[in-house]
Design a protein that fits this description.
Elements: H1 2-43, H2 49-62, H3 67-76, H4 80-97, H5 101-113, H6 117-137, H7 141-162, E1 171-173, E2 176-180, E3 187-194, E4 200-209
Antiparallel strand pairs: 1-2, 2-3, 3-4
Helix pairs in contact: 1-2, 2-4, 3-4, 5-6, 6-7
Length: 215
């Protein structure tokens, strides 16, 4: 009997030791991740273009675990280009890692107002899904109703974004381009520049008619 007790105690201590080692390994891994992310965030403002590009790509590849650190850096960083790149990283990671539907809906609105409707639709789709799940889990009827309404609204905005694509520029004057939104009935005056990867970046957008719409 004594031998059995000794064996049982040994097994318990071994189990506790393994759990402690696993916890230590996880903590060490999280620390390494934070250090690497901090280094890459710092490189977003580097002088060399290639360094900035590589840092942005690497942060996105690190995935959702670095999203809180990216959001924190975005609120603290003053450098204009670093902020622009952090914002792109935040949006790229938010679809996978953001769990706050209000934040997703806010990002969706930013994308819609920037005429990036495909991206806006993706953010609204995830916001609608999360609002819906929160509504299902909510026991307070008033809160449940509010969350369900937000889910429905986000789903409608997703559908609207999917149906809107900017047409070709119909006028050009000193770099200002009039772009008409198909299906929306609005016209916008925007300044556009060619961005990285062939993407068009909207630097300024103002409605000529119809306002910002229900985004």
């Amino acid at each position: 009997m004594r031998i059995v007790w000794i064996s049982a105690l040994a097994m318990v201590f071994c189990g506790m030791s393994l759990r402690a080692e696993n916890t230590a390994d996880q903590d060490a891994g999280a620390t390494r991740l934070r250090i690497k992310a901090a280094k890459l965030i710092g490189e977003l403002g580097a002088e060399e273009f290639g360094t900035r590009e590589a840092a942005e790509k690497s942060l996105i590849e690190m995935g959702a675990p670095v999203l809180p650190q990216v959001k924190e850096a975005l609120s603290d960083t003053k450098d204009t280009e670093a902020r622009t790149r952090l914002d792109r990283v935040r949006k790229a990671l938010a679809l996978a890692g953001e769990t706050d539907p209000d934040q997703l809906a806010k990002l969706a609105r930013e994308e819609a107002l920037g005429l990036r409707y495909e991206s806006a639709a993706k953010f609204y789709a995830k916001a609608a899904d999360l609002y819906g799940k929160q509504a299902e889990a909510e026991t307070d009827e008033a809160k449940k109703k509010d969350l369900a309404a937000k889910a429905e609204q986000s789903a409608k905005r997703k559908a609207r974004a999917e149906g809107l694509t900017p047409s070709e520029a119909v006028a050009e004057n000193g770099g200002r381009v009039i772009v008409r939104q198909q299906g929306g009935g609005n016209a916008r005056v925007v300044i556009q520049v060619q961005g990285n990867g062939g993407q068009v970046q909207v630097l300024e957008a103002e409605s000529e008619a119809g306002g910002d719409g229900d985004w």
